Amino acid sequence: MPKFQFSLFALTALLLVSVSTASFAQTTGGGEGINGQYGDGPASLPDPEPSDITPGSATAAAAITSSTSIVTSLQAATRYCTPLGPKEYVIDCLAERLGTLSNQLEGQDGFEEVQAILDSTAKDLNQIARQNRSATLAPATFATQGQTPVQTTRRLIPVDEARMEDAVSQALAVIAETETLLLRSADDSTDRSIQFQQIAAAVGSNKVLLRSL
After folding, report:
1. Quick check: is 35 in a domain?
2. Long-range contacts: 137-140, Cβ < 8 Å, 24+?
3. Residue numbers of the domain that contains 52
4. Tens-binned pLDDT, residue by residue, of the chain (213 aa)
5. Are residues 112 and 64 in the same domain?
6. How far is CA 110 from each of CA 100, 107, 170, 198, rounded to the nearest angstrom?
7. Residues 6+ apart with CB under 8 A from 193
8. For residue 195, which of 67, 100, 132, 153 is within the disulfide window of CB 3.0 to 4.6 Å?
9. Rounded to an integer, what distance in angstroms lies between the CA atom of residue 113 and that of residue 119?
């Protein structure tokens, strides 16, 4: 083969390999976050799965064993959902995070009421997202960046922008009812009452996030 023809062949092959590698990196790499940049908040991930996963279906990696850890986890859930760029995903983000925490509480002595209430809240919020589902935005999985990324256990359902006001009103009512149920679940024990008040307050802090949508 003449040297000139061989060089053209080698150059063509090199270009094909380069294009293939770039495409793979875009598909499986980080890509852009939902704000168009990585930032500190969760970024959307490609998710080829055709079906949604019902809240509560994921197996918890670790159990939550104290009221303090419950409050910490609730606060972390709020922080996780706060930076989401497209506000349409926030309501179901809260549903997914509360559902994950409910899974972690399953079987923990002394927290049966909390587990049941959070599970119901997660399902109610998810139902709100489904009933007001966007016809243009696709469900998406999200994950934080960094060495220990936190990924959603399922695809989040986006709310239609035109229905956002109604969806937020419904979500606020669910959160308020959750607070009430948690406070009613406390018995006469002073310690237990304080614990449930703290948990209720942590859940209620999500009202600030919802009102900002």
Report:
1. no
2. 137/86, 137/88, 137/89, 139/47, 139/52, 140/34, 140/44, 140/45, 140/47, 140/89
3. 40-211
4. 554 444 444 433 433 333 333 222 222 223 333 332 223 556 665 443 333 433 433 434 455 668 999 999 999 999 999 988 789 999 999 999 999 999 999 988 888 999 999 999 999 999 999 999 999 999 999 998 888 889 999 999 999 999 999 999 999 999 999 999 999 987 667 788 899 999 999 999 999 999 999
5. yes
6. 18, 9, 30, 15
7. 186, 187
8. 67
9. 10
Report the candidate in 75, 70, 95, 106 with the shortest Cα–Cα distance to residue 170: 95
Question: Model's pTM, two decimal places?
Answer: 0.73
DSSP state of 158: P
Tell me how far apart the alpha carbons of residues 21 and 151 are, in angstroms, rounded to a whole number: 25
CA 85, CA 90: separation in Å to the nearest integer?
Answer: 9
Distance CA 175, CA 60 (A): 23
Which tokens sit at 128? 């709100």
User: Where does the chain have alpha helices with state H?
Assistant: 3-28, 67-81, 90-105, 112-131, 164-185, 190-204, 206-211
Predicted local confidence at residue 29, as pLDDT? 29
Residues 95 and 173 in one domain: yes
170's CB contacts (< 8 A; 6+ apart) are 128
